[in-house]
Amino acid sequence: MNPSVNPYTPWPGASPPFLAGRQGDTKFVEGAFGQAKNGKIGMHPIFVGDPGVGKTTMLNYAVNLAKTEGWMVLSVEARAGYSVVNDLVDQVRSGLESISQDGKTESRIKALLSRIQSIQVSVLGSGAGVGLGRAPQSSLLPVSQVFREIGDLARERETKVVFSIDEMDQLSTDEMQLVLGAMHVANQTQSPLIVVGAGGNGLRAAMKLAKNYGDRFMLTKLQPLNYEEMEAAIARPAEALGVTVAPDAMQLMTEAAKGIPADLQAIAFHAWNFATDKKIDLQAAMDAHAEVALDSQQLDSLDVNEYSGVS
């Protein structure tokens, strides 16, 4: 079939065409944002789970929802050799400079920009890529104060700030303290700042190590999809384009994915490209499995007769 209209998304972080099995999680995000609209801050959606289970997808859902509301969004991704704080303060500066200024906010924005400049020079250093973990512990204070002042400014302008962190479990201890501190201050002062995050199963331990109250924040563990959810994730995008999926092909693809959305998208993506005549059949699914299989022994053990009903 035509690969240019292939609806499946096997790329890391890409949102699937149909978000199956996450209705409760999307409602949780919407509930957190709804409470923020009503002046209540405290729900910070943070998702954990196994690789490929859809953590970044849920993070993107929250970020896109914030953008539709017109809120300020600050997005960072933790990784080795990268300064989350340096990226963060750059985004804060850009966001502040884009705000239409009136007499009430002009002086505050200038003061914030001046403070951010001093943080980058005196705390992060003048060289690129200097991480917060290399700075003294006291360096957290001015960054935390910036968060507080941004929250005050957002409250005055009747808007909200969403701070998004992917790969949150990869933060250094100092960076994790900054994030948890921002959440704690937002909750204490009801400052309109929501933190949304995604990380691996070790995130809770990293949070507890960074702050003695790090184990008090709520985490949402994403579970693998069940068969019905996987079936919907494959069938609904195909049906929207007039393509059918054979039952034996569906069984093979869902069993191969083992409930992991990223693996399901990968095998469905290749099955689409191998399929012909508006139908994903068993042969297309087998070819797709061969394309993505990492374990040749698993591939060799597959028996087409198991799925076709031939004895």
Question: Could you name the key traits of this structure?
Answer:
single chain, 311 residues, alpha/beta, two-stranded parallel ribbon, 7 strands
What can you tell me about this protein's structure?
Helix content is 54%, strand content 9%. It has helices at 23-37, 55-68, 84-98, 103-123, 140-156, 173-189, 203-210, 227-240, 247-257, 261-274, 282-292, 296-301, 304-308; strands at residues 46-48, 72-77, 161-166, 193-199, 220-221, 244-245, 279-280. The strands form two sheets. Strands 2-3-4-1-5 form a five-stranded parallel β-sheet, with helices on both faces. It has a two-stranded parallel sheet with strand order 6-7. The longest helix has 21 residues, at 103-123.
What structural class should be given to the helix and strand makeup? alpha/beta
Helix and strand sequence: HEHEHHHEHEHEHEHHEHHH
The average pLDDT value, as a whole number, equals 82
Question: Termini separation (Å)?
Answer: 31 Å
Bulk shape: elongated
The oligomeric state is single chain
Work out the number of β strands: 7
How much helix, percentage-wise, in residues? 40-55%
Number of helices: 13
- Strand arrangement across the biggest beta sheet: 2-3-4-1-5
Biggest pleated sheet: 5 strands, parallel
- Percent strand: 5-15%
Are there runs of 5+ residues with pLDDT below 50, and where?
A: 120-141, 295-299
